[in-house]
Amino acid sequence: xxxxxxxxxxxxxxxxxxxxxxxxxxxxxxxxxxxxxxxxxxxxxxxxxxxxxxxxxxxxxxxxxxxxxxxxxxxxxxxxxxxxxxxxxxxxxxxxxxxxxxxxxxxxxxxxxxxxxxxxxxxxxxxxxxxxxxxxxxxxxxxxxxxxxxxxxxxxxxxxxxxxxxxxxxxxxxxxxxxxxxxxxxxxxxxxxxxxxxxxxxxxxxxxxxxxxxxxxxxxxxxxxxxxxxxxxxxxxxxxxxxxxxxxxxxxxxxxxxxxxxxxxxxxxxxxxxxxxxxxxxxxxxxxxxxxxxxxxxxxxxxxxxxxxxxxxxxxxxxxxxxxxxxxxxxxxxxxxxxxxxxxxxxxxxxxxxxxxxxxxxxxxxxxxxxxxxxxxxxxxxxxxxxxxxxxxxxxxxxxxxxxxxxxxxxxxxxxxxxxxxxxxx
Length: 426
Ligand code: CMC
Description:
- A hairpin with a 5-residue loop joins β2 and β3.
- By secondary structure, this protein is mostly helical.
- The chain folds into 3 domains: about 55 residues, Rubrerythrin, domain 2; about 210 residues, Orthogonal Bundle (Citrate Synthase, domain 1), CATH 1.10.580.10; about 110 residues, CATH 1.10.230.10.
- It is built from 18 helices and 6 strands.
- The strands form 2 sheets. It has a 3-stranded antiparallel β-sheet with strand order 1-2-3. A 3-stranded antiparallel β-sheet has the order 4-5-6.
- The site of carboxymethyl coenzyme *A has 20 residues, from α17.
């Protein structure tokens, strides 16, 4: 039976089809709205707009559910490797042993970065933010690796290069920013261990891999691997919709993720907690500021466009803080401040009424600090984790039979037709 909603305007009735997703979520298909009625919809920030149909990630913001290709993120965080998770997102299913082995070989083969890119890195001013550098360098990959003639092969190799090289590039930017020798990837190390080794190995102090640290990074990256149509993923899809190359689309995603309301929040949370520590623990003052409508300050790491309950990723990150820090014999005063801040905010009516709970960024910075990642690299860590999701979403959009160039409309509110006045008469 046809399912539709009725739209009535000045006696005219229009029927708009209802489209239902596999988890029962409903949408009104307005793709013919303007053609049939002359109307467009107005939805600033797209909070009520589905930009595509997607089979990759399911979120239920009311129940706090997150699944990749149907598998709960909790199960992946407990049992999967990051590489398996990337394969799952990008290829739609978990790999078997042979596929995973071949995937590892392929990623290893592509993990080196063109030597000429190093001179690019060295020219960035020392104070440059690593997210700006990463976004530029990912875009520059097109210049170093021109397109292949075979479109299928080119698409596969771009995906492989990105997964293999972004990790190397991120570690490289850290080493260069410190004026240290770059450490090359090693084929005998797994994905997370390889990254940690490139970040922290040095000729004067060889890096000792620690299972708890590697595991924490694995969980962090899995939790960040996809989150359906968020700001950076939408940026990747929108830029990709112009049939721009994948490197440019991912570069746009990295730029979007940099923002403090999105991925940059993990850095902003640590800065906020450090400010509280410096001021002698004025948690009430911070909560008061966050509620003040005349103050642009927001409680960083709190609130989410979709989750109106506890972010499932934040639950895992909080638990990780409680298990990882004692294992590494770390006592981080910022963890105590974060817990007190959460407790105070969650008792406060403003936060209760606005459904504001900790999001993934609230506790993730404390985990990253514990494994030795410097604060200005936090959002880069998020970007490496989100890469499989961006790639999966880009790939899905490339093969979408309903694909269209992304081009929203607007309601114009400027002056109506106005005569040009020559400069001497103004
Ligand atoms: N502190 C204080 N008030 C808040 C906060 C916050 N962190 N978040 C939302 N609000 C209030 C906001 O002031 C508004 O109040 P009112 O309706 O009275 O004017 C109401 O809640 C709704 O806010 P909104 O900005 O319309 O809601 P949104 O769904 O667009 O916000 C958000 C989502 C993430 C931008 C916002 O919660 C925020 O700015 N949080 C802090 C930054 C942050 O932690 N970002 C990381 C998000 S999770 C990682 C990721 O996936 O990117």
